[in-house]
Amino acid sequence: DTEVTQTPKHLVMGMTNKKSLKCEQHMGHRAMYWYKQKAKKPPELMFVYSYEKLSINESVPSRFSPECPNSSLLNLHLHALQPEDSALYLCASSQFSGSAYNEQFFGPGTRLTVL
Amino acid sequence: AQSVSQHNHHVILSEAASLELGCNYSYGGTVNLFWYVQYPGQHLQLLLKYFSGDPLVKGIKGFEAEFIKSKFSFNLRKPSVQWSDTAEYFCAVNGYSTLTFGKGTMLLVSP
After folding, report:
1. Among A2, A7, A71, B102, which residue's beta carbon has the most beta carbons within 10 A?
2. 10 Å Cβ neighbour count for B51?
3. Comparing A66 with B99, which gets the higher pLDDT?
4. Residue A57 · residue A49 · CB < 8 Å
5. What is the average pLDDT score of chain B?
6. CB atoms within 10 A of CB B53
7. What is the mean pLDDT for each group of 10 consecutive residues in chain A (115 residues)?
8. What pLDDT is attached to residue B9?
9. What residue in B sits closest to A90 (Cα-Cα)?
């Protein structure tokens, strides 16, 4: 299985809602990533988990809260988002982080709209 | 810090034309280089990668790229494009722990 899956595909939420994005991989990868991608822009790194521990937080606002319950799952909890947070949220995984030999496999993304 | 520069933001070609998309990177150490493609409404897919060895790498769908260390470049090429190659193309570099993307090049191939 060389796939990264993400649910839901689409999410519409109000600014007072709490929701979660989910990501799963079964490739035995020990590094997982959250990216944010706005239209016509490249993906921007948000968080990196390595061996289920948060290793990089790219100064992301606290209304985004990542969680890595086990080596196959990665969640992104959302609370009190702003309309400018509307974007495609991509999950990726790789064998491990902290190395140049680090091919990342991307999921299809969750298209988030904040009203 | 590492950075990636893609020369063209938009490229328009006719079918069967040859393609070359420029990519330059900046990083002081060993890097690994990637080209990703994002077809309309689809997720990022890896086209090809360079880790070491032969600087001319071949990827999927007839794409290839050449790593020129002296020029810090990793240009993407395809001899004859098809309408189905219409997509956004991202060059990316991985120096140590994070993947840095270029701003992307939108390729439109007219039939």
Report:
1. B102
2. 16
3. A66
4. no
5. 92
6. 8
7. 88 93 94 92 92 90 96 96 96 77 86 95
8. 92
9. B43
Residues from chain A that touch B97, judged by Cβ atoms under 8 A, are 48, 55-56, 97-99, 102
CA atoms in the 13 A half-sphere facing the CB of B39: 7
Q: Whose CA is closest to B22, among B75, B63, B87?
A: B75
> What is the C-alpha separation between B21 and A43, in angstroms, rounded?
19
Give the minimum alpha-carbon distance from A105 to chain B in angstroms, rounded to a whole number.
Answer: 8
What's the pLDDT tens digit per position in B48-79? 999 888 999 999 999 999 999 999 999 999 99
Bridge partners, residue A4, by sequence:
A25
CB of A21 closer than 8 Å to CB of A110: yes
Residues of B in contact with A106 (CB under 8 A): 36, 43-45
CA atoms of B68 and A90, how far apart (whole Å): 30
Q: Angle A81-A84-A86 (CA atoms, 0-180°, nearest 5)?
A: 75
DSSP labels, B50-85 = E-SS-SEEE-GGG-EEEEEGGGTEEEEEESS--GGG
Whether A34 contacts A66, CB under 8 Å: yes
Question: Cβ of B43 and A105 within 8 Å?
Answer: no
